[in-house]
Design brief:
The protein is an all-alpha fold. Among the domains are: 1-34; 91-179, Cytochrome c-like domain (Cytochrome Bc1 Complex, Chain D, domain 2). The protein has seven helices and no strands.
Length: 182
């Protein structure tokens, strides 16, 4: 009888131990499957959006600002059709031009940076002398008819250059001063 009781207790113990092992294995498998499911559903951080009903983005070319564009063949619109600059800067004319520039132009132009209007620094590396002279002498017609002058007007928020009523000699002196700014 003791043997039977011992045998039954052993069977119960073995049975319980097997059930515990089965439960542990089942629990491990359940944990493994749950982990796999969570990771497979996670995906990346990128949000995928539906393109349904959305307009395609418009690609626009970034144009070089008119103030930085190089157009040496454009002579502009106005009375100056050709102009030869000497190889050496005429210092007396440049000094006179600096004086005129200081009185008439500095309200809108700074020699070393953009302001209300473009900087004249290095202007002759980007524009022909004729274009510069025509812009000084004839800004209204230049803004109406010259594509570059129109672009500059737009770049500088529609602020047109004022006609200062300079003579050709004064405008030429200002141009000579611009040659010293390079």
């Amino acid at each position: 009888m003791i043997y039977v009781i011992f045998y039954i207790k052993c069977q119960i113990y073995i049975c319980c131990t097997l059930k515990q092992k089965q439960m542990k294995v089942s629990l491990k498998l359940l944990t493994l499957f749950t982990t796999l499911i969570l990771f497979s559903c996670g995906g990346s951080d990128k949000k995928e959006e539906s393109s349904y009903g959305k307009k395609a983005p418009i690609k626009t070319e970034k144009k070089e600002p008119a103030s930085e564009r190089i157009e040496l063949s454009n002579k502009g619109v106005g009375p100056i059709t050709s102009l030869d600059l000497g190889l050496v800067v005429d210092q007396d004319m440049a000094a006179h031009g600096k004086e005129i520039y200081g009185k008439m132009c500095t309200a809108c132009h700074k020699a070393d940076k953009k302001f209300i209007g473009p900087s004249p620094n290095g202007i002759l590396e980007r524009r022909s002398p004729e274009w510069v002279m025509n812009m000084i002498l004839n800004p209204e017609q230049m803004v109406k008819e010259d594509p570059l002058a129109k672009d500059l007007l737009m770049e500088f928020n529609g602020a047109p250059m004022a006609n200062q009523g300079l003579t050709k000699e004064d405008a030429r002196a200002v141009l000579e001063y611009f040659r010293t700014l390079n």
